[in-house]
Automatic annotation (TrEMBL):
One GO MF term: cobalt ion binding
Superkingdom of the source species: Bacteria
A cellular component annotation (GO) from this entry: plasma membrane
Family listed: Belongs to the CorA metal ion transporter (MIT) (TC 1.A.35) family.
Coarse class of the protein's main subcellular location: membrane
Protein name as it appears in the record: Zinc transporter ZntB
UniProt KW keywords: Cell inner membrane, Cell membrane, Ion transport, Membrane, Transmembrane, Transmembrane helix, Transport, Zinc
Transmembrane segments: 275-297, 309-332
Organism annotation: Parasphingopyxis marina
Length: 335
C-alpha cells in the first residue's frame, strides 16, 4: 500500500470506522474521526463515511445517530449481497459488488458494497476489504484529485467497481488465448483441467454479475433527483459497460466450450492412435505367436527335434513371415 495512504488509514478498525472524510469541493478531502462524523450537520462540507458492518458500534450507530430509518439500516447491515437499488425515505440505497482481491479467496466471489446517499452524505458499508473504496480515498486525501461532490463520488465509486470487473474479464480472454495457443503442443489432460477451472470461474462471475446489471438498469431508469442529468448519462455509460462485460463473459464461456471440445477431440485422437498401434502390433505378432506356440507343444512327432539347425530355420521362417505381413499391411494402407 502507498506509504502516504497508510498514514491516513487506521491500523485498527475495532471501532468500525474504516475512514471518514469531508470533501473540499476541489477534488480533495480532509480525514475526520467518529467525533467529526457524529457532529456533522448539512451545513458542513459533504461527508463520506466508510464503515465495517461486522462491528457492533456501527450496527448501533446507523439506525440512531446515523439518521437512517430502520428498514434502510437493516438493508445496509444485511449479509444479503444480491445487487439491488431502492429509494428510502431519506436517501437512496445501492447494493453492488466488486472484485474480490483478498488473500485466500476466489476472484469470482465478489465483495459486496452497500451504499446510501442523500446527495450531501455518502455512507458505504462493507464486511470484506474492497480496493475501490481505498483507491478513491487515496485520490481524495493524498492526491487531492478526486470527485468534487457526493453525487460525483457516488458515480465514480460505481464506475471503479465496474472497471475492476472489466479487468478480470480481459484477463479471462488472455487466459483463453494462451490455452488456445498451447492446444497443439501441451498435454491435453493438463489443458483440460486448466480450462475446466477457468470455465468454472467464468460461469461463477457471470452468475454474480447478471443481478448487478439489473440493479444498474433500475438505477438508471429511476435515478435519485440529486444525481443530475450529466451524472445520469455517466451512469448510463456504466450500465452499458456492465452489459458489455456480461456479453464478453458469454463469449468467453462459448470459447471455453469450443476449446473443451477441441481438447476432448485431441484426447480421443490420441487414444485412437494408441489403440491403432496396439492393434497393428497384435496383428503382426498373432501369426508368429501361433507358430511358436504350435512348435512349443510337448508331444511326440515334432519335426526338427533332433536337428541342430532347426531353431535357426524356424527363426528365418518367422522373419520371412514378418516381412510378408509388413508388406501386406503397407499394401492395405494399415501402416
Amino acid at each position: 500500500m502507498d506509504k502516504e495512504l497508510a498514514e491516513h488509514l487506521p491500523l485498527d478498525e475495532a471501532d468500525g470506522l474504516i475512514f471518514a472524510c469531508l470533501l473540499d469541493g476541489e477534488g480533495g478531502a480532509d480525514r475526520i474521526g467518529w467525533e467529526g462524523v457524529e457532529s456533522w450537520t448539512p451545513t458542513h462540507p459533504p461527508l463520506w463515511i466508510h464503515v465495517n458492518s461486522s462491528v457492533e458500534r456501527v450496527r448501533r450507530w446507523l439506525p440512531t445517530d446515523g439518521g437512517l430509518t430502520e428498514p434502510t439500516s437493516g438493508a445496509m447491515l444485511s449479509s444479503e449481497s444480491r445487487p439491488r437499488v431502492f429509494h428510502g425515505s431519506k436517501g437512496f440505497v445501492a447494493i453492488l459488488r466488486g472484485i474480490n482481491l483478498n488473500p485466500g479467496t476466489e476472484v469470482e466471489d465478489l465483495v459486496s458494497l452497500h451504499m446510501w446517499s442523500d446527495g450531501e452524505r455518502l455512507i458505504t458499508v462493507r464486511e470484506e476489504k474492497l480496493n475501490s473504496t481505498r483507491n478513491l480515498f487515496q485520490k481524495l486525501v493524498t492526491e487531492r484529485e478526486g470527485p468534487h461532490t457526493i453525487p460525483q463520488l457516488y458515480v465514480e465509486l460505481i464506475d471503479d467497481l465496474t472497471n475492476g470487473i472489466g479487468g478480470i474479464v480481459a484477463e479471462y480472454d488472455d487466459q483463453l488465448d494462451d490455452i488456445e495457443e498451447r492446444t497443439e503442443r501441451d498435454d491435453p489432460s493438463e489443458l483440460r483441467q486448466e480450462l475446466g477451472d477457468l470455465r468454472q470461474e467464468v460461469v461463477g462471475l457471470r452468475r454474480f454479475l447478471a443481478p448487478q446489471r439489473e440493479a444498474l438498469n433500475r438505477l438508471m431508469a429511476d435515478p435519485p433527483g440529486w444525481l443530475g442529468e450529466r451524472l445520469g448519462l455517466e451512469l448510463r455509460e456504466i450500465a452499458d459497460r456492465t452489459q458489455r462485460h456480461i456479453e464478453e463473459i458469454d463469449v468467453a464461456r462459448e470459447r471455453a466450450l469450443v476449446l473443451k471440445d477441441d481438447i476432448a477431440n485431441r484426447l480421443s485422437e490420441q487414444m485412437n492412435r494408441n489403440m491403432y498401434v496396439l492393434s497393428i502390433v497384435a496383428a503382426i505378432f498373432l501369426p508368429l505367436s501361433f507358430i511358436t506356440g504350435l512348435l512349443g507343444i510337448n508331444v511326440g512327432g515334432m519335426p526338427g527335434v533332433s536337428d541342430g539347425s532347426a531353431f535357426w530355420l524356424t527363426c528365418a521362417m518367422l522373419a520371412v513371415l514378418l516381412g510378408l505381413e509388413l508388406i501386406i499391411f503397407r499394401w492395405l494402407k494399415w501402416m
